[in-house]
Amino acid sequence: MILPTKYLSADRSLIAIGAEIIKVLSETPRSVSEVWERVTASRNPHAAPLTYDWFLLAVTLLYAIGTVDMRGGLLAIVSGAKQ
After folding, report:
1. What single DSSP character describes residue 80?
2. Cα 34 to Cα 17: distance, rounded to the nearest angstrom
């Protein structure tokens, strides 16, 4: 689930989706809905479809490992977290 396996493709792994989220947030903090829109728009059309709950699991993973945080209602990369 977090990492790809022979049963879970890389584009569905939470770590890969998390990387896409970090890429969107590297520019500036954004609302969760804006990050969702940008991530889904930038995904490869041949990749497995990304559902909102799977997206939120990736955001939760990033929060749990201290990479992102909510600041003023916006999702932001934590200072000191490498991109």
Report:
1. T
2. 15
CA distance 67 to 81: 6
Q: What is the CA radius of gyration of the chain?
A: 12
- CA dist., res. 68 & res. 41, Å (int): 21
Name the packing angle between helices 52-64 and 14-25 (round to 10°): 80
Quick: pLDDT tens for 48-61.
889 999 999 999 99
**Token couple for 33:** 């809905």
> Which residues pair with residue 77 across a beta bridge?
68
Question: pLDDT tens across 9-23, in order?
Answer: 888 899 999 999 999
